Amino acid sequence: MNLYPALILDALAKVRYPGSGKNLVEAGMVDDNIRIEGRSVSFSLLFDKPNDPFIRSVVKAAETAILTYVSPDVDIRGRISAVSRPSVPPPSKPETLLPGVKNILAVASGKGGVGKSTLTANLAVALAAQGYRTGLLDADIFGPSQPKMFQVEDARPMLEKKGGRELIQPVEKYGVKLLSIGFFVNRNDAVLWRGAMAVNALRQLIGDADWGTLDYFLIDLPPGTSDIHLTLVQTLAVTAALAVCTPQEVALADARKAISMFAAGKVNVPVLGIVENMAWFTPAELPENRYYLFGKEGGVQLAKELNLPLLGQIPLVQSICESGDRGEPAALHPETLTGAAFHALAQRVTEHLQRRNEQLPPTQRVATTKN
Fold it and tell me: Are 45 and 8 in contact (CB under 8 A)?
């Protein structure tokens, strides 16, 4: 029996706290530190008052839910503790959550279907090939695609004890450390989770994983703008964001919203630049020809309009799709048209981060050299 924190959270989401009517996960009553050792599971439930009248009934209901919806063999009875919340929450310190990571890059798009995940996978592979220690978090809980992109769909990350904690060991391929919720759910099943459950799962993939020392940590964000985006930027000290769009007007309109989200007061993350994906179609047999299927230079104009750097234009070539389906990102072959485009993008990203770093006060700068 394989137990994962996500399974426990799924069961606890079926228990409602009588005081508010919300389920335990939605109400933020489940402590992030769910401890799993074999068949034994233990964690804390957070209550606003130490003498809350519902403590006993809620703890009992939580035990029953886990035994019912996870497995009757889970050793849970007597292992759920009731803890009162501190009257003043401690200040968050996102900058210390991943102390070994130099640069955290969020890759975003306003809408789905613009090739954001393909671009993120290839950017990660290109950075790793150029000698940078690279990690990739697939933050698209409801449509994880990175396991397919890296041909590691059957991987099941292991837990390893380090520093008194059991940490998830990221899957590593092509020099990239990778974690995705896709490793912990059935690939053919829809993930039917409420927002709070998705957020908690992401927090565990970040904070309970052994990411080690990295030069670049890429986050493949879900499309649109949601509480997942807000939670990630509040949990991590994101260095900058990349906005991905296609040349067509509807994609540009949504890209503007994504960029606006990063500029909002609650987020306040600098946008490093714009990447125009599917900029033109080039058939393999006519590599010099360009056909503008989705419009011409829409991303170029958007970059000028918003006074942002255009970091790259990636052509639409059949081999990109085929390589992604095979789990062999095009960036593995820098001698090809598409591979060269992704390596050029990686080079521009590192150059712009270097320039941005040089403009910061000395106390805020990070090392940008390899290793």
Answer: no
